[in-house]
Design a protein that fits this description.
Elements lengths: L6 E4 L6 E9 L3 H8 E3 L10 E8 L5 E10 L10 E8 L1 H12 L4 E2 L4 H8 L5 H11 L4 H11 L2 H24 L8 H22 L2 H9 L1 E6 L6 H9 L17 E7 L2 E7 L9 H14 L4 E7 L6 H9 L5 E6 L17 E3 L8 H13 L14 H22 L4 H19 L5 H8 L7
Parallel strand pairs: 1-7, 8-10, 8-11, 11-12, 12-13
Antiparallel strand pairs: 1-2, 2-6, 3-4, 4-5, 5-6, 9-10
Helix pairs in contact: 4-5, 5-8, 6-7, 6-14, 7-13, 13-14
Subunit structure: Homodimer. Heterotetramer of two MnmE and two MnmG subunits.
GO biological process, one term: tRNA methylation
Protein name: tRNA modification GTPase MnmE
Length: about 450
């Protein structure tokens, strides 16, 4: 992206609204504003960060719109450039006319994410904070909003900076002693290196373990309802959703394909999937539905094995359990209002829930169990950092390798050059999270996922 141009874009979403905001950023922002804007008070100068009423007029002196405009002088702006924001009426024709007006003056339409890209390039945000801006815009639940706000405020950035600072201290000392090859590095320094690297390795491992929870809270979890036909899967889905979305009949095999619906369970975005009942069938459509169910199981974050408690479990129930092998499983006994005498531990050491879709008995307990499983213990304190981006997770995993090698070298009195090499490599991977060592291709990929105007 060319950051020397002055750019313009709507900062508010598409669609008609009462008010829209158009943002301009760059060296020519103020002169561009005055080219078409006439303040009501006829001011010739605008104070920074103060809102002014006035009219936008085109070259023919026709009024385009009545607006409020604010000029914000660098560096106290989002992009750390001069910025102008125009609050206009929110009709799409009004917005298009204003954009066309300023494009005729030579102001370029911004690319997706270009305002945030400039904030990053000008040191307003590091890369993890910039990514959090996009996460905040696309947050599906209050939990994902809170995570994005925390990361945007520098929660992850501070942790990465702390890790980098400790590694840089080791690197500085190592390279200093490399300049004096006739002297050995003092034992106390080696001992300090070992302590620091051991602590860093432990902390990075702890953070990487939060990724599954962070991913679920931002992207959502896939929960499959699996069981034999007529076990009550569709009724359970409707009960959890609070509305009739799945067709419920007494005829086994009513659900022949999977039905997927979204909901929020205690702030966790969830995709609930009602699947075809698992059994041997001669129906071509049902066979395909069963095949798709088995395919979906391998991708599920959690499987609810649905068992009808009004009858004794049979081989089809155990076959359904076997098909879920390797996935996290909750055993959910349905129709508890009609239950017979059963051993509810028949299926082994899985969490067991007893519910009635008809009376709602046990549903709150099931919801709480799902929430606790997906959230684990990571959201209980404000100090906890959760990874939400696969890019950050992969960078930290790769960072562990050179840290482990450097630790081994320190413990075995290896050549200082090997230690320095591994520390530089670890710093490189940490820099990919903050943006210090990120390539242009990766930056383009990250910011292209933003909306225009942010």
């Amino acid at each position: 992206m060319n950051t020397s141009d002055t750019i313009i874009a709507p900062a508010t979403g598409s669609g008609d609204a009462g008010i829209a905001i158009i943002r301009i950023s760059g060296a020519d922002s103020l002169s561009a504003l005055f080219r078409f804007f006439t303040p009501t008070g006829r001011q010739t100068e605008l104070q920074s960060h103060r809102l002014y009423h006035g009219l936008l007029r085109n070259d023919s002196d026709f009024v385009v719109d009545e607006v409020m405009a604010v000029y914000m002088a660098a560096p106290h702006t989002y992009t750390r450039e001069d910025v102008v924001e125009i609050q206009c009426h929110g009709g799409q024709q009004v917005i298009k006319s204003i954009l066309k007006l300023y494009q005729s003056f030579g102001i370029r339409l911004a690319q997706p994410g270009e305002f945030t890209y400039r904030a990053f390039m000008n040191g307003r945000l590091d890369l993890s904070q910039a990514e959090a801006v996009s996460q905040l815009i696309h947050a599906k639940t209050d939990s994902s909003r809170k995570l994005a706000i925390k990361q945007m405020g520098g929660g992850l950035s501070r942790v990465i900076y702390n890790f980098s600072s400790q590694l840089k201290h080791i690197l500085v000392l190592t390279e200093a002693w490399l300049d004096f090859p006739e002297e050995d590095l003092p034992d106390e320094d080696i001992a300090d290196f070992i302590a620091v690297l051991t602590d860093l390795k432990s902390k990075i491992l702890t953070i990487t373990e939060t990724y599954s929870c962070g991913r679920v809270l931002t992207e959502g979890a896939s929960i499959l309802l699996v069981g034999q036909p007529n076990a009550g899967k569709s009724s359970l889905m409707n009960a959890l959703l609070g509305e009739d979305r799945a067709i419920v009949t007494d005829v086994p095999g009513t659900t022949r394909d999977f039905l997927e619906e979204g909901l929020s369970i205690d702030g966790v975005p969830v995709s609930l999937v009602d699947t075809a009942g698992l059994r041997t069938s001669s129906d071509i459509v049902e066979i395909e539905g069963i095949r798709r169910t088995e395919e979906k199981i391998s991708l599920a974050d959690l499987v609810l094995l649905v068992v009808d408690s009004s009858r004794t479990p049979d081989q089809l129930d155990f076959s359904a359990l076997e098909s879920c092998s390797g996935r996290p499983i909750f055993v959910v006994y349905t129709k508890i209002d009609k239950a017979i005498e059963l051993d509810f531990n028949t299926f082994g050491a899985f969490p067991v829930y007893r519910v009635s879709s008809k009376t709602a008995e046990g549903l709150d307990s099931l919801r709480h169990g799902i929430s606790s499983f997906l959230k684990k213990d990571y959201t209980t304190t404000d100090e906890t950092v959760l990874l939400t981006e696969s890019r950050h997770f992969e960078a930290l995993q790769r960072c562990l390798e050179p840290i482990g090698r450097a630790l081994f070298c320190c413990q075995n009195n290896a050549d200082l050059e090997l230690i320095a090499f591994d520390i530089r490599e670890a710093l490189y991977f940490l820099g990919q999270i903050s943006g210090e060592t990120t390539t242009e291709d990766i930056l383009d990929d990250i910011f292209s996922g933003f909306c225009i105007g942010k």
